[in-house]
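User: Structure tokens for this complex, please. No commentary.
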Amino acid sequence: MPEKLIGVLTAGGDCPGLNAALRAVGKAANAYGMGVIGFLDGFRGLVENRTIHLDPSKLSGILTMGGTILGTSRDKPHRMPVGSMGTMDMTPLAVDNYSRLHLDALVCMGGAGTVKNAYRLLKSGLNIITLPKTIDNDVCGTDVTFGFDTAMTIAAEAIDRLHTTADSHHRIIIVETMGHNTGWLALGAGTAGGADITLIPEIPYHIESVAEALLRRSRQGKRFSIIAVAEGAITVEEAAARAEAGTEISPDDEEGGSDKTARLAQKLQALTGLETRVTVLGHLQRGGTPTPADRLLATRLGARCAELISEGASGIMVAVKGDDCVPVKLGEVAGKLKTVPPDHPWIRTARQVGTCFGD
Amino acid sequence: MPEKLIGVLTAGGDCPGLNAALRAVGKAANAYGMGVIGFLDGFRGLVENRTIHLDPSKLSGILTMGGTILGTSRDKPHRMPVGSMGTMDMTPLAVDNYSRLHLDALVCMGGAGTVKNAYRLLKSGLNIITLPKTIDNDVCGTDVTFGFDTAMTIAAEAIDRLHTTADSHHRIIIVETMGHNTGWLALGAGTAGGADITLIPEIPYHIESVAEALLRRSRQGKRFSIIAVAEGAITVEEAAARAEAGTEISPDDEEGGSDKTARLAQKLQALTGLETRVTVLGHLQRGGTPTPADRLLATRLGARCAELISEGASGIMVAVKGDDCVPVKLGEVAGKLKTVPPDHPWIRTARQVGTCFGD
Amino acid sequence: MPEKLIGVLTAGGDCPGLNAALRAVGKAANAYGMGVIGFLDGFRGLVENRTIHLDPSKLSGILTMGGTILGTSRDKPHRMPVGSMGTMDMTPLAVDNYSRLHLDALVCMGGAGTVKNAYRLLKSGLNIITLPKTIDNDVCGTDVTFGFDTAMTIAAEAIDRLHTTADSHHRIIIVETMGHNTGWLALGAGTAGGADITLIPEIPYHIESVAEALLRRSRQGKRFSIIAVAEGAITVEEAAARAEAGTEISPDDEEGGSDKTARLAQKLQALTGLETRVTVLGHLQRGGTPTPADRLLATRLGARCAELISEGASGIMVAVKGDDCVPVKLGEVAGKLKTVPPDHPWIRTARQVGTCFGD
Amino acid sequence: MPEKLIGVLTAGGDCPGLNAALRAVGKAANAYGMGVIGFLDGFRGLVENRTIHLDPSKLSGILTMGGTILGTSRDKPHRMPVGSMGTMDMTPLAVDNYSRLHLDALVCMGGAGTVKNAYRLLKSGLNIITLPKTIDNDVCGTDVTFGFDTAMTIAAEAIDRLHTTADSHHRIIIVETMGHNTGWLALGAGTAGGADITLIPEIPYHIESVAEALLRRSRQGKRFSIIAVAEGAITVEEAAARAEAGTEISPDDEEGGSDKTARLAQKLQALTGLETRVTVLGHLQRGGTPTPADRLLATRLGARCAELISEGASGIMVAVKGDDCVPVKLGEVAGKLKTVPPDHPWIRTARQVGTCFGD
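Assistant:
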């Protein structure tokens, strides 16, 4: 009989590297004499007690697979949709299932929203450990999240493809990346892909400055431009209205999606007279085989997670710190969002090679 | 002084393999003692006499490059946009430039629309040779067009990525491919990517049949489905209305694009109660490095084109026929569109492995 | 109870697309009311009666997977290695197992060697159907084999990578591809990758001509060259010796591999004074996810195979013929090898764009 | 006239990201009002005064290109090969050319060997700035080098491909990676690719332990194994002999390459009776388009390099430190090699998921 029993779930949007992390948690847990049970479909499986035993045969061959073999959902224990009845607080069921299974720890792999939900469960008495998983890279307390490198790679390679079309047709092409309310993905992919203009939520833009940058390139004889825009990018006017209304940005794991980018394209075409097209990358950024860098990172986090649990850790997020992975108190990071500081070194880099941020 | 002088242009949407074909025309032309001049930006460059000399240095290193070093446009000589004045018939200018340059042949690389425009120039007295280039594979008289394999590869790999997301979230995901008014791309990528449902213009669909197929999968315990939909796919009702109105489908090189697919998603979600998302691949399908298969194909067509010109060919399209490339009279293929016959072997294959076409 | 029962095995070297073909045979067989049993590890599993039932759950999710879920081996029924005892003719066991399972047909997926072995079983009374699978493309009677496009893609993309190294270091780089005794792979990848020199078994080369071609490029100021060499390429001297000895090339599925290519590099470096390096692609060419084109092709062949069996076909290979798949009598193709005709259109193409074959 | 003039060269083995770094140095230098001259073919170009002006047109479109537009060589100024005469100390020529061009700084992009050579030039009075470039990741003083992520990605994806072959044929496959005398590449790619055994120079191995690990897997019913071996991996016996002889490992930029790995395969096959094959990745690991992560990293380093020069920095390496890039004194890092500490967190991770190191 194993010394300890760990539960594990994957919550929020699916993300490359989840299976690599599950494999590492499971393999390392076994090495430490612990057993592992997986809950299906995020917190919903915890509440409904739908589980599978993560034995070695389940963990074999999944290192390179996208998605999550456990399934995922955006449901939160304390506000879970129940048929047509609205939502209910299912926390007591989650706590009850945890106890009846005699779990020693529950590993929650998720982004900023999941960390918040996991922290509630911690306060309800469960021993929670989280792993920072998200393509958005917006989790506080860790150098980076797994999934980000894959999403950045997909987005940058999409920009590569669009370059040849933009160049051949002498067009402006706007590429909308994911990222929720942060600009890490647009900034990273934009710089790696050589975008001429990058628009991120943390630096509200003047549409006239963007148009002027396009016209300046045109006057220099450059017959195309690439704009990388984060789904959460906003104009200075929108930022002012939001500040006035006191709207706060929360790290909830809701999906973005809007036709803001289509309207931006129309306005820029009107302001510049240059043919402008939009490509929305959408879910392409979260699917498919993780990059080797993400597989390595997810393996490091998952293995360290099992090690920390075997040593009795509780109420922590396993965070990346340089070449190492370290525990961080959940209370210190829950509810916080890691945005791009406007003076971040990557911003400086991008400006130095000529990227316009529209500010 | 070269024996003969060839002009070459690339028209219509940009397409992977154009540079490989230009390189092959140029290298083989030189081997046959002929010179090559490139017109910039499609037929517009012919009309405006904007040219570059395609000497060996220009052709080096472009085999793997996406887009076209000549630039392209959708302008037609006989209806060319002129400032805010509407359009004018610029054919005489095209003919004049051709004569003044003492060209022996004009190679036009393009899709079904370009073949039509090129045929008009042939009738105006120019010696025209076309190469079948398009990601849509809708050119008559050739086994296949270059660009198609690359686009199919990109679309199928996108379906691969979306599979993991659909699976993890238990969703319906609809992938819209290009293809204009034909279904080759959706059919090829859908079958290669394992789409559960494929919707193409040649087989109008009943939305209820599609919904029923989704529910059937759901009842079988399959928690996700992938739908590959061609941008030109239509319902039986739309097909009937179109037939009634006598609307004809023409091979013009216009771009598609609509929010039909978004509406399809809404309807299917309403009919099935299953969460449904859309990804529009758009320009990603035409950019970037061509697949090696497309590079080989474009090289074969380009080299054969130069050979045929050196032998005095006129008024032909160079067509793929098995391992060979053969001349086909332009008059036999101009103005025709290669659609997918409803009893085509690929349709039969797709049905045999369980694909639903909604008919 | 299913109407008919099909056995299936995969033999010879593993090859991208095998799982796609297995999935298509299985899915289409089910649609025609037939059951499918898989033999493990090629002909060995048939002899040892090691089987698995290929029910739908086994076929799900394998479309994109490399390798073969059945395993493979190079063992031949009539000459099967038995411990340290040498080999034995196990054909009677194969025939016996076939009968006891009441199979209606045995599908053998394999290359030229497998076709030969399968034909022996046909003559022993089994109803054999083969599918042309091999990265070498050397099977007679079919336009192409599945696996070839993937291998050509991998080899051409390797040439792309080596181009940048060759260019930066001003080197000769020799890339050895697979292909057994035929040059399809080296020819296709070489042309698609822009190799300057391509050496294939069907066109024996003079090493002096190769050295001269390298020096000519050097004199033209081109500071690097790429040579694509098939593992079976031979010099004119070797070809003469082989002809004298009456050595015949057989389509047996033996693996190549030698240090011939290393010696070629040494000789060329000595003859030219140019720094020369070798990369042997080896097994990289046969592994990993098949290209979408190969998945489509394997699906077409597999589905058609099931259809033909349901219609009572016997003693055939399912062959690719244009967009269709057609039955070809096994007796017409067994024991034959499809080599590259020296006047094949692809050779002409390669010469037209300047490729040297060393002849 | 620009305020300052920078020279730049790329030395040692070519490496993905060199062009991205050159572009960033050039673009940022221009933004700071400085001009940039490139020396061709590494230190040789400095000695022979072969230069090109890196104006904006040269820097456009190179972000995604592999190799280096400047060319590279392994020549060292103080021991430069001169015809058949052996080598000469060309440092005075290098110093003289630097002065006559009125350079304010010389940027040397290279690995551990280049840092050593650059440091000699610093001591000869040149203002040297180095950028840590190498696929080996063996440069001291920086978190990571550019090129490493691309090489690790290529190697891990090769392991993915070989997995399917190993699995289908029930074989041991040994993959030899580069890395000189360090194990970063084998360790990173091995862990990301799920290698069962990883052999690196820093942990000498017992061949019997490796054989035993293979047999253990075989007894557990696992029918294949993947071994990632660094080109510099050694047995405990070799390590002891080397220690006895007092042989020191130097950071010189010499190329590896041996048939040690072939002999390892033979021994393991003899010890285990399991079929064993070798794939040597070789130059494939250094060519081709850099990963987006490497493009971002090279851009960050290149832009920061220009900034530091504009601020008057001298005698430094620009090093990666978290999200930032910081100057490090050349004297502190020259001549040192960053090896993998046997207790490095990545080693612990690999052991936790079951990797055997043969120790």
